[in-house]
């Protein structure tokens, strides 16, 4: 099984002619998301949808009525429809079947396990069903059982991962065909995230510029490593530090109790969920994301890179496709709070090192993780997969002699499964 990311090359074939004919065509794209939570996955869906709308495509998001993404979609200018797809049920299948009949999308892009199952089964209940593209946002293992294999390799037309390592894992560990998987890392708007004036940012947010700020921007989930970061900060000596935790999530109460128990309430602040992380990043002397599982290429990491910040993180998931140890960040072993504290202390002690790492990180992000690059790659996948307007089902990737261009990261150097 080929586990390498191979470049896409146009072929002189009828299949290639069909793809070429679709280029420039207005596509009808249906996104589905069963998750009720809010984090990088949901933000990418909305950013991507907004970008496709800006390119002239017709985009609709189907999500559960209780989902946070439903409330946020309007802010992003993305049309949405509430359907009972938060859990696997006949009601959800029938609701999606009705939507497919009315909306008749050129393709479906699913994002979590539940909505992928519902979309796959709903497709059986309509004539000329649209192809299904599944985006895998995280690195959690995919079960190696018959139903899941069927879902990923038979019911799904094409898979998109947010990192090359995620793609390679599906090929190596699950035996999925490499030519049906494309890696498209998340892209960030470089105009929105830029190096900022720290003093002005501190004053705007009412923060003391004389203190040293360590910051994390992440949903408060266990695998993001907030507990480890709190413990590592507790071990810091010789610095008048403060830890700013930007984000919200299911573990907030537990984390607040931990901070209170350790007597760190005056040093650790919970900022909550923010729609303006670009205002907070310039305040940070060090950005830290000590994740220990499930990561693709995290959006907050890319945002911090574009902001030119010194970064401490872990080699989890596809993080090393974005940063390299000692070149654009300091990487530490996951769950190793001693090493984490040492890396934080080093960057607080050595501002010149932090500037060098931050400058390199920003250059990498500008080159490889721009928003337009993500949109280009996803549009290429969609144009390749979309069904013809004749109503005939689209060919599967294995039937085509051309492949979507894989977009990789830097050269090396309820789970939403």
Structural class: alpha/beta
Which percent bin holds the helix content? 25-40%
User: What is the CATH class name of the largest domain?
Assistant: Alpha Beta
How many beta strands in the DSSP annotation? Answer: 13
Question: Mean pLDDT, as a whole number?
Answer: 89
Rg result: 22 Å
Kindly summarize this structure in a few lines.
With 417 residues, the chain is an alpha/beta fold. Helix content is 39%, strand content 14%. It is elongated and about 70 Å long.
Task: Describe the model.
The structure is a single chain. The protein has 417 residues and is of the alpha/beta class. The protein folds into 2 domains: 14-187 and 370-399, Rossmann fold; 198-368, 3-Layer(aba) Sandwich (Rossmann fold), CATH 3.40.50.2000. It contains 15 helices and 13 strands. It has helices at 14-22, 40-54, 68-76, 90-103, 113-123, 146-155, 164-172, 198-205, 226-234, 252-261, 277-280, 299-306, 337-349, 351-368, 371-385, and strands at residues 28-33, 58-63, 80-82, 107-110, 132-136, 158-161, 181-183, 212-217, 241-246, 268-272, 286-289, 311-313, 330-331. A 7-stranded parallel sheet has the order 3-2-1-4-5-6-7, sandwiched between helices. Strand 6 (158-161), helix 7 (164-172) and strand 7 (181-183) form a beta-alpha-beta unit. The protein is elongated, with a radius of gyration of 22 Å. The two termini are 23 Å apart. The relative contact order is 0.16. Mean pLDDT is 89; it is low at 1-21 and 391-415.
């Amino acid at each position: 099984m080929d586990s390498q990311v191979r470049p896409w090359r146009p072929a002189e074939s009828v299949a290639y002619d069909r793809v070429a004919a679709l280029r420039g065509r207005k596509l009808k794209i249906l996104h589905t998301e069963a998750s009720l939570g809010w984090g990088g996955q949901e933000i990418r869906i909305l950013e991507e949808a907004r970008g496709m709308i800006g390119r002239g495509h017709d985009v609709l998001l189907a999500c559960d009525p209780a989902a946070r993404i439903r409330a946020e979609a309007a802010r992003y200018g993305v049309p949405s429809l509430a359907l009972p797809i938060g859990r696997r049920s006949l009601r959800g299948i029938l609701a999606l079947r009705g939507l497919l009949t009315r909306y008749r999308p050129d393709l479906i892009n699913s994002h979590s396990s539940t909505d992928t199952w519902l979309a796959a089964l709903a497709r059986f209940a309509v004539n000329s069903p649209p192809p299904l593209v599944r985006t895998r946002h995280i690195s959690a293992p995919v079960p190696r059982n018959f139903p899941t294999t069927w879902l990923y390799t038979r019911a799904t037309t094409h898979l998109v991962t947010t990192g090359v390592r995620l793609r390679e894992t599906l090929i190596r560990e699950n035996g999925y065909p490499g030519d049906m998987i494309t890696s498209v890392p998340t892209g960030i708007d470089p105009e929105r995230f830029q190096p900022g004036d720290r003093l002005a940012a501190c004053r705007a947010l009412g923060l003391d510029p004389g203190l040293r700020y360590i910051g994390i921007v992440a949903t408060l989930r266990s695998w993001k490593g907030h507990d480890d970061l709190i413990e590592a900060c507790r071990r810091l000596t010789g610095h008048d530090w403060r830890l700013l935790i930007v984000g919200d999530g299911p573990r907030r109460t537990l984390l607040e109790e931990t901070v209170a128990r350790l007597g760190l309430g005056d040093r650790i602040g919970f900022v909550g969920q923010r729609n303006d992380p670009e205002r907070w990043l310039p305040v940070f002397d060090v950005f830290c994301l000590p994740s220990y599982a499930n990561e693709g290429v995290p959006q907050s990491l890319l945002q911090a890179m574009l902001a030119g910040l010194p970064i401490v993180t872990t080699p989890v998931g596809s993080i090393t496709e974005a940063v390299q140890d000692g070149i654009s960040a300091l990487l530490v072993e996951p769950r190793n709070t001693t090493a984490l504290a040492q890396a934080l202390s080093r960057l607080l002690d050595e501002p010149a090192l932090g500037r060098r790492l931050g400058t390199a990180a920003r250059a990498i992000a500008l080159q490889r993780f721009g928003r337009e690059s993500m949109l280009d790659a996803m549009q290429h996948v969609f144009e390749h997969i979309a069904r013809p307007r004749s109503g005939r089902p689209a060919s599967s990737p294995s039937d085509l002699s051309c492949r979507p261009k894989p977009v990789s990261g830097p050269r090396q150097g309820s789970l939403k499964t």
